[in-house]
Every structure is written in C-alpha cells, then in structure tokens.
C-alpha cells in the first residue's frame, strides 16, 4: 500500500475521514486555500482545491509521485480535482464529463430524458419575471443557485409573493452561484431523503444507505438540514428498497461510475419520487461513519478498494438491524444560553455515540438566526448509532427538547 491519501478541504466534519484513513494505514495530506486545516493532518498544502494541475505539480515537487494512493473530497467543486489526482495515481476514475462540476440544469435534463424528473424547473434565462410571478400565484416555488454548496443562496417563496421578493431571491441565488445562474423550481412538498451510493468501473452500483432529512424549524426559508436519519423504522423495507432502486437509476442516468453518489430526492404524497440534485462525492461523517454503521459495510474502505479495481456488489445494503444519525443542533433564533450541556447527556443509554463535538455550545451566549449549513456546523454535532427500534426520531426529539430546556433555562 502506498503511504499517503489526499483529502481536499478543511472542514472540521472531515475529521471522521482522517480517522478512518489512518486506520487503513495512510498518512493524510489535507489541501485547502486557508492557512491551515481545521483538523489534525500529517501534511498540509495551502492551495485552491479546484487547482488540480497545481496540486499535482506540488505533490511531484515534494517527491510524492508513486507514494499517493488516492484522493477524496466532500466538496462538489473539487470533484474534478479528485478525478485528476486519482488518474495521476493510476486509479479508476469517473467519466470525462465529471472533469467539471455538473450543473443542476444538466442533471435535470439527464433525468428528464430517463423519465425520472417530474416537476417544473427553469433556469432564470429560460423564464421571465412575469412568468415566474404568474406561477408564484399558483404554487410555492424555490429559487436556488445553479452551482453552489452548503444550502447557500436558497429562498423558498410562499405562494403569492411579490415581484420584488422574487427578484430579490433571484439576485441572491445568482450572486451565490459559481456560474451566476439560478434555478426556479416548483417546491414539492414531501419527505426528503438522501441516497448514498457507490459505483465501480464494471457498471455495478450499490445503495449503501438512505437517510430521512429533517430541516431546521428555526430557518424556514433556508432549508438547512439538522438531522440525517439512516435506516429509520419510519418506513417499511419495501419503501426503502424502492428508494434504493430509484437512486441507482438516477446515478446511472447521469453516466456516473467509479465514484460515490450523494443524491437528494423527495417522496411526494402519492409515493412517487423526484430527484433534487446529486454530487459525485460523499460528505463528512457520512462517508466515514454513519453509512457504514447503518449498512454494516465499510463505505470508505470499499471506495478505496474500488479505486484499485475492486468490484462493488450490485443492489443495496438497506434493511439491516442498525440505524444511524447525524445530529446537528437547531438552536432557536435569537435565544440566550444559560448552562453548558449537550444532547448526549439526554440520550437513551442504548444509543452509542460514535463521535461528538459540542464546543459551539457555551453558557451565556446569544444565538442569532441560521443562514446556511456553516452556521449549523459551528454549534456542533453528534454521530449516533443503535438498533433501529432504539434510535427513533421520536426518542431523539424528546432528548433534544430536554437538552434545549436545560441549555436555555426554559424550565
């Protein structure tokens, strides 16, 4: 085995991946435009994660040709760099079309062609303000950047909004988008899921896990996810299998292989699914801990093996006995804390805490409003696992209320 593995990004949520890669025997090279990574690493390179040629040239200058075993990132914009480094290492790589970041409109077009996309979706260049206004009088809309990350620039437009509110939402989305384009879509009401997949170079794709997304009640217009719950008992195994099959169809429709696929979908009231977007990546502790805990299969280990030509078992790893959760704190807007505590103090004792970070929860602090995922992450999080009948959303919500009561002095 070669000595190093490259991790593109510096978010604290990548610490789980560092821990797992070290378990595999690697030294971790972190790359970020910042002065240093937000976690311990074995080597740091200060460089833009989108600069594939520059990063590879620097690795060669360091004498690391033949010593790096692969690359990984949780950043959509870094996917082409991951591909370039894996090619430099002699690994399996994604198709050439993923040497740039797919835009949401490209995903939409591919899924429409495959008969998988079933809601209104228009780029701001494909529709006029007057047409958007007319639609907004009939339905709830969502305005979002065509290429962005971390829930930034998203506005949910309730039915009947004014032209000014629509224009403001478009401006925000375009200013946030890396290509200065925005999408206006029908806001579909329903349960939201992630589908976490991995494909190989032989055409095999497996769904390792699917999570229900729970959004902040304190950021209703920003759509910030504060809980991901994998392998929940809320739905029966037939439904989970349908979700896995739909996710794999979405993965294949984009022509992806030899990479993770992190898909978001919505289940409508009639039980049908519609895709939202997919990244050619995995994320934070999803990649390293939660999916593996729920599926019983090492998601990150299988990714590394796949890079070296290993085959992925087709199908899905759902319906096991275990469940997992990424729990993020949803602190009420404009509230003041009175006591330092955290969610783990109030959990069912049978729930195992795989990892926890709570240094954003202090006594005597005023907490403002949510803006995006970054605000959520700075509070802290807990990675949880337990049997499916123990780790339920009802149990977690009850523990969360007890935590908030003590943290905010509400009782």
What does this protein look like?
The chain has 411 residues and is α+β, with helices and mostly antiparallel strands. It is 30% helix and 25% strand. It has 11 helices and 19 strands. The chain has helices spanning 15-23, 52-61, 79-89, 104-113, 129-136, 163-176, 237-253, 284-295, 299-307, 373-379, 393-407; strands at residues 4-8, 27-32, 43-46, 68-73, 121-123, 141-145, 155-157, 182-186, 191-199, 205-215, 225-230, 260-267, 273-279, 315-316, 322-328, 335-336, 352-357, 366-367, 381-387. The strands form 4 sheets. Strands 9, 10, 11, 12, 13, 14, 15, 17 and 19 form a 9-stranded mixed beta sheet that branches. The chain has a 4-stranded parallel beta sheet with strand order 3-2-1-4. Strands 5-8-6-7 form a 4-stranded antiparallel beta sheet, with helices on both faces. It is globular, with a radius of gyration of 21 Å. The model has no long low-confidence stretch (mean pLDDT 92).
From the structure above, extract its key features.
411 residues; four-stranded parallel β-sheet; 11 helices; 30% helix
- The structural class is alpha+beta
- Subunit arrangement of the protein: single chain
Uncertain segments are none
* Overall body shape: globular
Question: What helical percentage do the residues reach?
Answer: 25-40%
**Number of DSSP helical runs:** 11
**How much of the sequence is in beta strands?**
25-35%
Major sheet characteristics: 9 strands, mixed
Distance between the termini: 56 Å
Give the SSE string: EHEEHEHHEHEEHEEEEHEEHHEEEEEHEH
Mean pLDDT score: 92
> Care to count the β-strands?
19
Taking all Cα atoms into account, the compactness measure Rg is 21 Å
């Amino acid at each position: 085995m070669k000595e190093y593995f490259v991790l593109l990004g510096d978010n604290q949520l990548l610490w789980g991946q560092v821990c797992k890669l070290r378990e595999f025997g690697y030294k971790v090279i972190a790359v970020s435009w910042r002065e240093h990574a937000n976690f311990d690493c074995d080597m740091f390179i200060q460089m833009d994660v989108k600069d594939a040629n520059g990063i590879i040239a620097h690795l060669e200058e360091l004498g690391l040709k033949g010593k790096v075993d692969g690359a990984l990132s949780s950043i959509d914009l870094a996917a082409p760099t991951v591909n370039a480094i894996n090619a430099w290492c002699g690994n399996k790589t994604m198709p050439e079309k993923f040497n740039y970041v797919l835009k949401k409109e490209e995903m939409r077009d591919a899924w429409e062609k495959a008969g998988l996309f079933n809601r209104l979706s228009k780029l701001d260049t494909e529709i006029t303000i007057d047409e958007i206004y007319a639609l907004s009088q009939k339905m709830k809309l969502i305005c979002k950047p065509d290429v962005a990350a971390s829930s930034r620039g998203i506005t949910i437009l309730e039915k009947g909004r004014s032209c000014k509110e629509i224009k403001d939402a478009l401006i925000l989305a375009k200013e946030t988008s890396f290509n200065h384009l925005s999408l206006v879509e029908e806001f579909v009401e329903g349960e939201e899921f992630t589908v976490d997949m991995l494909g190989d170079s032989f055409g095999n794709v497996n769904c390792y896990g699917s999570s229900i997304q729970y959004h902040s009640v304190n950021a209703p217009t920003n759509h910030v996810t504060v809980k991901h719950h994998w392998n929940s008992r809320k739905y029966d195994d037939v439904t989970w299998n349908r979700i896995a099959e739909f996710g794999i169809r979405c993965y294949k429709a984009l022509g992806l292989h030899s990479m993770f696929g992190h898909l978001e979908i919505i289940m409508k009231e009639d039980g049908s699914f519609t895709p939202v977007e997919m990244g050619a990546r995995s994320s934070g502790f999803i990649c390293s801990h939660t999916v593996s805990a729920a599926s019983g299969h090492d998601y990150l280990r299988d990714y590394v093996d796949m890079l070296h030509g290993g085959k992925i078992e087709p199908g899905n790893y759902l319906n096991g006995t275990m469940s997992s959760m990424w729990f993020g704190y949803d602190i009420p807007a404009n509230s003041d804390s009175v006591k330092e505590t955290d969610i783990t103090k109030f959990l069912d004792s049978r729930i195992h805490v795989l990892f926890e970070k709570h240094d954003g929860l202090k006594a005597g602090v005023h907490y403002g409003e949510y803006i995006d995922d970054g605000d959520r992450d700075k509070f802290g999080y807990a990675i949880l696992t337990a049997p499916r009948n123990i780790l339920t959303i009802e149990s977690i919500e009850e523990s969360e209320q007890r935590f908030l009561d003590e943290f905010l002095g509400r009782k």
